[in-house]
Design a protein that fits this description.
- Helices cover about 45% and strands about 15% of the residues.
- It is of the alpha/beta class.
- It has an 8-stranded parallel beta sheet.
- Helix 4 (about 80-95) runs parallel beside helix 6 and helix 15 (about 300-315) packs antiparallel against helix 16.
- About 40% of the residues are buried.
């Protein structure tokens, strides 16, 4: 989808944004289902350009958003093969944007819904990755899943060889199960990366919880940390990365508009921020559009855009030579 005012966007800056070797580190597989697959599959049920995918659409509440996402995504994701088909298109779109590294998570409860073991979904997603795109697969769960019938599966996640890590997602105002900290610590000890959605639909205190109680250094969103300077200092001092999704934050009314988005304030406070699309099935956004939005709506300079790109590579799970090569390429493009 063409971003607003695209005709007036400086082409030289757009070329610069495209040329940056980019990462995507906050992406939900089910929420990234390419909508064109649904339209081709059942055009009467999934017409072109539904209202919820338009840039002007605002989701009233998180449950409203979740209902739309699930009603569109779950009919598709019924087999491991369907995950492969969706990821094949999704990853091809990443390559077209010069995105070279992706961290994406699938919803762990789906394994129960469709009766497909998680390792089979992981294998399908990894098989869809084209040459030249590094992909790391995470699984996400609700805060309450640790106390439910998924617990036996959660307790074996450390044995899933190709699982890069785990994430807590969903409605943030749910209480965090008291056993989560121990589970997350065990997974880190097994070499898995632990993430947590925090500071989106609840305040800065949930960011503090994620960092101090759960021990994560990767917070998904985190933008409401700006409400508490002490939490911002904590995140900066602990080297925590916020995987931020500006278009999602506006469409979900976490912030009223782009001008109010705190990403620059967070970065100026010393917090490493990346940018990602979150759920492009619902927002019709791309990684390139996220960068363009920072430039157009928040007047990010090339230097600032280059720093966002560097931030993604600094936390990417890649070999040091690959990280250094990407950062050097960004530095050359930025003239630094």
């Amino acid at each position: 989808m063409e971003p607003p005012a695209a005709a007036n966007f400086p082409m030289d800056l757009r070329t610069f944004i495209h040329a940056l070797p980019k990462t995507e580190t906050h992406l939900h597989v089910e929420g990234a289902l390419p909508y064109e697959l649904l339209t081709a599959w059942d055009p009467r049920r999934y017409p072109l350009d539904p209202p919820f995918r338009r840039a002007s659409y605002r989701y009233r509440t998180f449950p409203d958003f979740e209902q739309i996402l699930l009603s569109n995504a779950l009919p598709w994701f019924t087999t491991a093969e369907r995950y492969y088909e969706a990821a094949k298109v999704m990853f091809t779109q990443h390559v077209a944007q010069n995105v070279r590294y992706v961290e994406t998570s699938f919803h762990l409860p789906v394994t129960k819904f469709i009766g497909v073991p998680g390792p089979e979904i992981i294998a399908a997603l990894r098989a869809a990755a084209p040459r030249g795109l590094e992909v790391r697969i995470f699984t996400g769960m609700l805060r309450t899943d640790l106390a439910g019938d998924l617990r036996p599966t959660i307790d074996e996640l450390h044995t899933w060889t190709d699982l890069a890590g785990v994430d807590l997602h969903g409605y943030e105002q749910m209480p965090t199960d008291p056993s989560t900290a121990a589970v997350w610590a065990r997974l880190r000890a097994a070499g898995k990366v632990t993430k947590c959605h925090a500071g989106e639909f609840d305040g800065a205190a949930r960011v503090r919880e994620a960092v101090e109680l759960l021990g994560v250094n990767r917070v998904q969103h985190g933008v409401r940390a700006v409400e508490d300077p002490a939490v911002m200092r904590l995140a900066a001092d602990q080297g925590v990365t916020f995987d931020v999704c500006p278009i999602s934050n506006v469409r979900l009314q976490v912030v009223p508009d782009f001008a109010a988005h705190p990403i620059r304030r967070l970065m100026e406070a010393g917090i490493r921020c990346t940018v990602s699309t979150d759920d492009p099935l619902c927002f019709a956004n791309t990684v390139v559009e996220e960068y363009e939005t920072l430039a157009r709506e928040l007047a990010f300079t090339r230097t600032e855009l280059a720093q966002v790109a560097r931030n993604g590579w600094e936390v990417a799970s890649v070999a040091p030579p690959a990280r250094q090569a990407a950062i050097e390429e960004i530095n050359r493009l930025a003239g630094s």
